[in-house]
Amino acid sequence: MIYRISSMIILGTLFFSCTKSKDKVKDVISTETKIDTKTYYSSKHLIEVEELVSLSKQQHIKIIDFRTAEDYAKNHINGAINIWRTDIEDFSYPYNGMMAKKEKIEQLFSRLGIKNNDTLIVYDDRGSCDAARFWWVLKNYDFKSVKILNGGLISWKKAGGLINNHTVSITPSAFTLHNNTFELYITKEEIIKAINSDKQVVILDTRNIDEFSGKKQKKGAIKGGRIPKSILIDWAETIDHKGTYKFKSYDDLNTIYDRMGASKTDTIITYCHSGVRSAHTTFVLTELLGYKNVKNYDGSWVEWSYFNDLPFEQDETTTIK
């Protein structure tokens, strides 16, 4: 009898603690400055912390921590599995950062127990930049069940979400990708044609001003500079870096990209150092703002700078950093 009463007390305490934890998340969220995501062109591939709290225990939800293995080992969202850039990279090129072929992704996802009917919730800790790269790669292989956690790990922690450093139990699966749409993909050959064309094409450099001008040469590039006819809009402008680390509002984003002087139907080619930051810009333009013809240059400056016969522009003397 005493045992049964003790058990009931323990279960009641656990239930109260779990309920209180969920209420804490809701309370913290309610005090944050909220951005009305309903005003975005589409929020289909975006998820808020409070939504993830209610979905995380569902059977076909996989949470992806898209950071380095070292960062993941320190702490991660409870139940998350770890994937990093190099896991979805093709190493057959003489330069780094190129998107992996679908066979490699199929093998990786199968090993991690990801199934075709899973919805993947991906996050990072730097304004969804890396998470957007993950979304972009899978979008090109026509896997659309991907949502970016708005604000990432930072937003999750601020909301009191559960984190730990536990190892996740994995049961291998048989994951397959069926189509190569390359819907948001462009090659250097196609960019050369665009540069030499009279058609309205915006070539958008999403790096910072030092990289754009040629002052800074990041590791992996052969030289500093930019692709001819490029205009600069730093990807980081789109994130509330001083607060929530979430995407800015539709109106703020629209104002930022109005500087391109482009319509929502014009061709826009994004690039950065290795196609990561420009994948983030591609997400903002296509998903949040509704631009219809955006292509991200996978090789970006790392590939472009590798070929000495490709034209480039440079404003300042380069220092390697």
Report on the architecture of this protein.
Helices cover 35% and strands 14% of the residues. The protein is globular, with a radius of gyration of 22 Å. The longest helix is centred in the first third of the chain and has 30 residues, at 2-31. It has eleven helices and 14 strands. It has a five-stranded parallel sheet. α5 packs across α10. It is α/β, with parallel strands linked by helices and 321 residues long. The termini are far apart. The chain folds into two domains: 32-164, Oxidized Rhodanese, domain 1 (3-Layer(aba) Sandwich); 185-320, Rhodanese-like domain (Oxidized Rhodanese, domain 1), CATH 3.40.250. Residues 1-33 have low confidence and may be disordered. α10 (277-288) links the parallel β12 and β13 (293-297). The protein has helices spanning 2-31, 49-55, 69-74, 102-111, 129-140, 152-158, 188-195, 209-213, 250-257, 277-288, 300-306; strands spanning 46-47, 61-65, 76-77, 81-82, 119-123, 146-149, 163-164, 185-186, 201-205, 216-217, 230-232, 267-271, 293-297, 319-320.
